Amino acid sequence: MDLEVPVLYPTQPKAVRLMNTVWADRTSVHDSLETLAHLQLWAVRAGIGDGQVDESDLDVARELRDALRRLAADATHDDRRGAVSADIDPQAALAVTNRFLADCTPVLRHEAGQGYSRVWRSGDASSFRQELAVLALEGADLLTGQGLRACGGPGCVLYFARSHSRREWCSAECGNRARVARHYQRKRDGDLQLEKGTP
Ligand SMILES: [Zn+2]
After folding, report:
1. Where are the domains of the chain?
2. pTM for this structure?
3. Distance (Å) from CA 119 to ligand 1 centroid
4. Residue 166 Cα, ligand 1 centroid: separation in angstroms?
5. Could you tell me the pLDDT band of residue 2, with boundaries at 50, 70 and 90?
């Protein structure tokens, strides 16, 4: 099987990278978490967990991904075709995300000879599940801040955390495609006006 699991924008927060496991090229929208093999590859490439994942982790990762994407769509007033899932509404997405956040209670532990360490309450979960819970917390912070954006590139379905306030696109490529699209749109509008005989 040819797995398409690009690591999109490794400098973006992990919560954004999870959202962006739904991505699009010129032909269609892709899902980098389609199968367990996809998840294994993605988790290793994204540096999440220790590479040990099973089918139940796949369900859980997809559930959080879909919830965060739905909330991101809501927070960014996203109306891009192909980007917003109709399978989950914002209320349900909020409930899912809050379930993950409930695992983010910090706990102080003491081990003889090791001293104190601050861990998450979900300490018995696999490292992948723990990272997902922390990733939900990161997602919650992004949603409550001002920095999360839906990319305005033609056909793009990605989100990104803005490094500066004027950034409109997830990448230089999307920026270039948007500029080219605007250029042709202006040209078409100009041609139309000429046809109508207006200056
Ligand atoms: Zn983009």
Report:
1. 14-147
2. 0.85
3. 36
4. 15
5. low
For residue 98, the CA-to-ligand 1 centroid distance in Å is: 28
Detail the DSSP E strand segments found in the chain. Answer: 22-24, 29-31, 106-111, 115-120, 148-150, 159-161
Distance 23 CA to ligand 1 centre (A): 9
Residue in the structure block whose two tokens are 């997809």: 62
Distance 84 CA to ligand 1 centre (A): 15
Reported as a single tens digit per residue, the pLDDT across 68-116 is: 999 999 999 999 988 888 889 999 999 999 999 988 888 899 999 999 9
Q: Which of 65, 71, 61 is nearest to 92 (CA)?
A: 71
CA of 123 to the centre of ligand 1 (A): 36
Q: What one-letter code names the amino acid at 169?
A: W
